[in-house]
Amino acid sequence: MGVMVKNISREEMSERFKHLQAVISGERFLSKQGLGNEIPFFICPFNPKEAAAMDRTRQGLIKRLGSRGVEVLDINLYDLSIELLKDREIWEQILAMEETVPKEQLKELLQGVLDSEAHVVPAIAQKIADKEADTGFDVLFVSGIGEVFPYIRSHNVLNNLQSTAKDQPTVLFFPGEYTQSLESGASLDLFGKLQDDKYYRAFNIYDYEV
What is the spatial distance between Cα 140 and Cα 136, in angstroms, rounded to a whole number? Predict the structure, then answer.
């Protein structure tokens, strides 16, 4: 079962940090053991109310892992989206339109220019290639899922990322619940409320043994 979304104390957050650090820096994780030939995708669920704390935890993890020789490629989907819009020279246009066009129309426009298969995942693939050509990396962090909803959906990113990010483990920081059961399969429940994102091929990182 997935880790339920709830308010957690500073002590619990510290324990989670220790678990994540131990797992991600471990040889078992880095060499993709115990996955049964599945794609090395991991979900790190957290309470959306604790987004700021989890952001600090992620940044702290990157530094601590780096000191242990584990290189992280950190991709925030919100920052990546702005990059894509600026590259296509429509960022200023989007900002201007936000005040004048209906939200549904703006949503449709953004869903088109930020399509996971056509634009977002190819951009991630380019960052992966650039990092591999530079220093290389051991694990991919993907965050910003809550900030890009509903223009970019987590299950679409994961589905299209399967053929691109399969050499190193990927950790998706998810503001909600990732539940797995024999009855209902697996579900990414964004913000603990939206239960329509089905993705079956990921592991809950809190269930992964060190």
Answer: 11
Determine which helix (DSSP H) or strand (DSSP E) holds 91, and give its type and residue range: helix 91-97
Amino acid identity for residue 114 in this structure: L
Single-letter amino acid code for the residue at 127: K
Residue 89 carries which DSSP code?
T
Report pLDDT digits (tens) over 131-165: 999 989 999 999 999 899 888 888 888 889 988 88
Instruction: Compute φ and ψ for 75, nearest 5 degrees.
Output: -120, 120
Angle (deg, nearest 10), helices 77-87 and 121-134: 100
Q: Regarding beta strands 72-76 and 139-143, do their DSSP bridges make them parallel or antiparallel, or are they unpaired?
A: parallel
Q: What angle separates helix 51-67 from helix 10-25, to the nearest 10 degrees?
A: 40
Spell out the residues 6+ positions from residue 149 whose beta carbon is closer than 8 angstroms to its own: 190
User: pTM for this one?
Assistant: 0.87
Calpha distance 209→119 (Å, rounded): 35
CA-to-CA distance for 99 and 96, rounded, in angstroms? Answer: 6
Ramachandran category for residue 203: left, alpha or beta (phi over 0 → left; psi -120 to 50 → alpha)? beta
When mean pLDDT is compared across 120-134, 154-168, 191-205, the lowest value belongs to 191-205
**Residues forming beta bridges with residue 178, ordered by sequence position:** 188
